[in-house]
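Morning F.,

Quick status update on the modeling queue. The single chain you submitted on Monday has been processed. Sequence for confirmation:
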Amino acid sequence: MNVGMRWRLAVPLIGLSLLMVVPAVYGTWVFWSEFGNTYRSLSVVICLALLAQLGLAVSIGVRPTRDVPWLRIGLMAVSFVVACGLAAVRRSA
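Structure tokens below.
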């Protein structure tokens, strides 16, 4: 897979990741003092999962590969599902 194709795949994934990371980090920072320790810790874990997803998206464009990096794309999907699950747990806690 050449550089152009990698970045054509990575740029939308980076954009989608940023659409999730920026509000999560901002919301955690803004509402830090309003909630308890459980909410705070779950918020930090959600932010870390989404930052890992952003790192995977960037790595798709940066790291050379011979084929489509399905493993990294799958790991991005897993981190998205984990973040959504943790957000549901956080909301119920």
